[in-house]
Amino acid sequence: MARVSYPESGDIRWEPALSTLKELCRNGVTIYWIRDIGRSLLELEVVKQAVKDDAGFNALPEGLINVLRDLVQTFRYDPDGVLLWIVLGLEDPYEDRLGVTHPLLKMNAHDRRTLAGEEFRGGEKQVGPGAIRTLHEPKALRRLTALLLQKEIELTGKVLQKAALPQALVERTREVVEEANQPPIAEDRHLDKA
Q1: How many CB atoms lie within 10 A of CB 19?
Q2: Residue 99 gets which letter from DSSP?
Q3: 109 and 84 Cβ atoms separated by less than 8 Å
Q4: Residue pLDDT, tens place only, 54-100
Q5: What is the C-alpha separation between 153 and 11, in angstroms, rounded?
C-alpha cells in the first residue's frame, strides 16, 4: 500500500492548526479544552460559519466540533478516520464494532488510543497505543489539517503566506547585528594611565 503524504501547504495557519489538533487528541474535543487551547482553530471562518445564529457562549467550540466531525466523516471508515473519530472523541458515547459502548470523552488519551488500535484495521490486527500515537496519528492529523485548511481557503479564497521582508530591511538588520557584534571601543577616561 502506497504511503499518502500531506505536505505543509505553505499557509501560515498550518502549524498552529496542526499543533492544536495534536492537543485535542490528548484531551478530546471537550468544550473547555477547545476554549483553552483552540484559538487558532476558533478564528477560522469555516468554524465561524458553522455556528448557529442563536448559539451562546459555547457556540464556537461546538462549531469546531461539528466542522471536525463533518471533515472526518468524509473518511470515517478509513483507518485514519477511525483513529481520529475515537482519539478526538467525535462520537460520545462511541459504540465499537462488537456493540460495546465507550464514553470517549471520559477516557484518557491512552485508553482512547488503545480503543482506536483495536478498531483501527477493523479488528483484524490490533495496533498498540504507542504505534497509534507515534506512527498513525501524525499522518491522520496532517490529513485532517489539510482538509480543514482546504475548506478555509475555499471559503475565504485566501492562502496566508509568510510575507517576504523587503530587501532594505534585511540589509539594515544585518548591519545592526554586525555592529552589535563589534568589540566595545575603550574611551580614554576609563583607561588606567601609568
Answers
A1: 14
A2: S
A3: no
A4: 667 788 999 999 999 999 999 999 999 999 999 999 999 999 999 99
A5: 10
Strands (E), the chain: 94-95, 101-102
User: What is the per-residue burial (b if ≥16 Cβ within 10 Å, else e) of 143-160?
Assistant: bbbbbbbebbbeeeeeee
Strand pairing class (94-95; 101-102): antiparallel
Helices (H), 74-136: 79-87, 109-119, 129-131
The grid cell for 65 is 466540533
Bridge-partner residues for 102, per DSSP? 94
The C-alpha cell at 59 is: 457556540
85, three cell numbers:
473519530
Residues 134, 139, 145, CA angle at the centre, nearest 5°?
A: 125
Other beta carbons less than 10 A from residue 32's beta carbon: 10
Residue type, 182: Q
Q: Can you tell me which residue has the cell 575603550?
A: 186
133-152 pLDDT, tens digit per residue, is 999 999 999 999 999 999 99
From CA 91, how far away is CA 169, in angstroms rounded? 51
Question: Which amino acid is located at 99 in the chain?
Answer: G
* Phi, psi (degrees; rounded to nearest 5) at 162: -65, 130
Number of H helices, E strands in the chain: 10, 2
Which residue reads 458515547 in cell numbers? Answer: 93
pTM: 0.78
